[in-house]
Amino acid sequence: MADKMAKPFLKWAGGKTQLIKDIEKALPNDIKNDKFTYIEPFVGSGAVLFWMLNKFPKITKAVINDINEDLINTYKIIASKPYQLISVLQELQNEYHSLERKDEKKKEYYYSKRDTYNSRNTDNIVHAALFIFLNRTCFNGLYRVNRNNLFNVPIGSYKKPTICDKENILFVSEVLQKVEIYCGDFEQTLNYAEKNSFFYFDPPYKPLSETSSFNSYAKAEFNDAEQIRLGNFCRRIEKKGHKWMLSNSDVKGRNSNDNFFDEIYSDFLISRVQARRSINANADKRGKLNELLITNYNYEQTLRTA
Fold first, then answer.
1. Which residues, 6 or more positions from 283, have their beta carbon under 8 angstroms from its beta carbon?
2. DSSP letter, residue 208
3. How far apart are alpha carbons 189 and 181 in whole angstroms?
4. How far is the C-alpha of 118 from the C-alpha of 141, rounded, in Å?
């Protein structure tokens, strides 16, 4: 796969492409040269998943999960019916690009497709195509739904966005053949763990402010109670003998008195690494900040810190 590495097919708030080097340095040594099962309970755009599958060919099984049914449907369609999906995406791309310099018609087209998506009356292939279309054409590539599970992001300002990336969809489909894909609560992933399993958690981040929340990926909010439940789940995983890594926002970096994660994960190794937040409605708030990498094992800490 060296010459055809799959990459995320979505833009995603909190995507981990920029942290791959730090994640690699923080991996447990005993999985790097041995067979293991890789489990990602909050798969999102799959940046770490695709990198892991390319980097470690000895992965015997990979398990991905997400509570977002529309996201998981898209993964399943790419895995099982990539050419049918490409056909629909190509049609959407041709139609959208034909509206260049016709701003009002382009808006009508976008909101019409958004309504169709929210109706959920199409087949799974078309619904997956609309999921990708909206991600590629909406404001900042943001995925957000309201409490009724209706996608409500307005149109973006991209002139001719790539909606159908045929080559990458086929690469993604190829690597997904060794991946088990599930939709549901993150705790169910423990059912699929085997000996020498490694979990990577990338949950919706705890907001750094009231206006910086990007955790509305599903109609149920991932609030503080859910963050605490995840911390308890990580303890269960450790008792089962599995190793895990978790990333989240560094709320203490914004408020030195905020020990929310330091208390939840006080028994584990907490590292602060430098990241760049690129999706924010306020351009002044985009830029470098610290994020957390937490593990239930020790490693040589040579991570980039602020």
1. none
2. S
3. 10
4. 17
Total residues belonging to the chain: 306
Task: Give the CA dihedral 47, 52, 55, 58, nearest 10 degrees.
Answer: -160
DSSP state of 247: E
255 φ, ψ to 5°?
-140, 110
Q: What is the pLDDT of residues 118-150, one digit of tens each?
A: 999 999 999 999 999 999 999 988 899 998 999
The first and second tokens of residue 205, run together, are 């981040």
CA distances from 75 to 20, 27, 154, 303 (A): 21, 25, 24, 31
**Helix and strand tally (H, E) in the chain?**
11, 7
Q: Are 182 and 64 in contact (CB under 8 A)?
A: yes
The CA distances from residue 18 to 15, 161, 274, 278, in Å, are 8, 22, 9, 10
Contacts of 233 (CB under 8 A, 6+ apart): 186, 187, 190
Q: Radius of gyration (Cα) for the chain, nearest Å?
A: 19
Token pair in block for residue 58: 């000895």
Task: Give the helix ranges, DSSP H, for 11-148.
Answer: 20-25, 29-32, 47-55, 69-80, 82-97, 103-119, 124-137
Tokens read off for 180 = 């088990």
Chain CA centroid to CA 251, Å: 20
Q: For 76-96, write each residue's pLDDT tens digit.
A: 999 999 999 999 999 999 999
pTM: 0.91
Give the whole-angstrom CA distance, residue 224 versus residue 140.
Answer: 26
Query: Of 52, 44, 60, which Cα lies nearest the Cα of 26?
Result: 52
